[in-house]
Amino acid sequence: MLTAHHVLEVLPKSGRLSIILSDLIHKDSIDIQGLEYLEIARGHRGSDRPDIGAIIIAPNIAASIKSNQANKVFYNLEIRRDFLLKTPPNVGNGVWFVNRFIAEGTITILDHGGYALLRGFQNLSGRCSPEPVVVVGNHDYFSFPVSQGGSFVAPKRFGGISGGGLWQVLLTLDSNGNLCHQYPFLSGVVFYQEFDIIKGSAARCLCHGRLSIYQVAYDALNKDHL
Questions:
Q1: What's the burial of 108, exposed, middle or buried (CB within 10 Å: 0-12/13-18/19+)?
Q2: H-helix or E-strand containing 60?
Q3: Are 1 and 62 in contact (CB under 8 A)?
Q4: I need a surface site. Which of 108, 145, 155, 219 has the fewest CB within 10 A?
């Protein structure tokens, strides 16, 4: 599971790691002994680049998750790697979304339905418009501004979104002229929010791009498991 490097720093080193596999009132978790935290690259702190890592799941656990979740699959980096490295679609094509659980949407309920404590998490799938990619060393980066206007009120802060995915969805017209979407491409991993002190809200989010995912992270994952 790709994530931000700084996320790995706060994950438990013993016991179990909770994961969300459905919208039901249920808790799933993985024994830490079945995981490996792979620190791929890290700048100093804060907005310093790079900031990317991965949580590697033991094959038997990954297979169990896949078999027990009929509507969920793991995203395959391998089959999209050459396309997104060699002939990636233009940033201006299709629509872009950022997806992750946003911290300010988390709710806590005490003593409900036989549970002493329930915690609910709000998933954010927000449309965004990334700016042109920037390449620094072996890594590339997307950034997208956060607008507080319009009919949808954006979160004030994007805490909790680190490690979330930035997705590009290409659009096409079928033979009847209907707009259709293609399979979404994982094109970024979020790692930082720039904050506007005057407005008191997030101003911009920074993400690793395709080069970081499909070359740097891909190579690190393969090297780690040769």
A1: exposed
A2: helix 59-68
A3: no
A4: 108
Check: CB of residue 51 under 8 Å from CB of residue 164.
no
Query: Mind spelling out the 3-state secondary structure of 173-204?
Result: ECCCCCEEECCCEEEEEEEEEEEECCCCEEEE
Assign residue 71 a region (left: φ > 0; alpha: ψ between -120 and 50; beta: otherwise): alpha
CB 144 within 8 A of CB 127: no
Tens digits of residue pLDDT in 16-44: 998 887 777 777 889 999 999 999 999 87
Question: 58: which DSSP letter?
Answer: P
Instruction: Tell me the C-alpha distance between 47 and 193, whole Å.
Output: 8
φ/ψ bin of 111: left (φ > 0), alpha (ψ from -120 to 50), beta (otherwise): left
In the three-class reduction of DSSP (H, G, I as helix; E, B as strand; rest coil), residue 167 is classed as strand
CA-based end-to-end distance of the chain: 18
At 72, give phi and psi (nearest 5°).
-130, 140
What mean pLDDT is reported for the chain? 86
